[in-house]
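Hey,
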Amino acid sequence: MAARSTAPEKRPGFFAQIRTLYTFTVQAYRWLPWALVGILIGGTLLGVAIGALIPPGAIWSIILWGVTGFMFGILAALMTMTRLSTKAMYRKIDGMPGATGYVLSSALGRRWRASEMPVGINPKTQEAVYRAIGRGGIVIVGEGARGRLTRLVNEERGKAQRVASGVPVTVLYVGHGEDEVPIGKLAPAIKSLPKKIDRATMAAVIKRMDSVSQTVASLPIPKGIDPQRVRAPRPR
């Protein structure tokens, strides 16, 4: 039997990540190469213009400011590509079962506690309910046909009101209909909720809700989304 290697897995280098990020984003935005070139040229020209306007306008000053503008252009191009890759990722997972869990678990930050696994699900129709807990209270998110989510949402809301009395409960539905939140705006919508509870109360609510929640192992996880395939890689 061959010995198992103890060497740590080698991660892709910075330029490999940039190439992967570019490949992923350009599939959704074909005009991306021209936009990046325009940003680089614009940054360089702006630097040259600044160097020419600052007295005494020596050639070395123009070159130095041109290089500086080019470097800022690279930074602006990376920021633009990263933002576009996020939009492309949301467009790709929009409407896929499990997309809500992926967003809640990866885009809310440390001030919110959420799981990629649903807290309630209809095995036949794949409608699912997810939960996030933070300083804004308890947020219940329904994914699927709104009419068929009523029972699941009411059950989870009733559970939250019994276990965490006095803590505000907000219900959101993912979709493009009236009073629904598109998947790309779900995380900002939750983060914008006003703070209603302190950190100690938040920790207590998390423990209470976890103690009464159905075990994840007993829930059939929605199929249709693989975060490893749709996640937009980010340069480190």
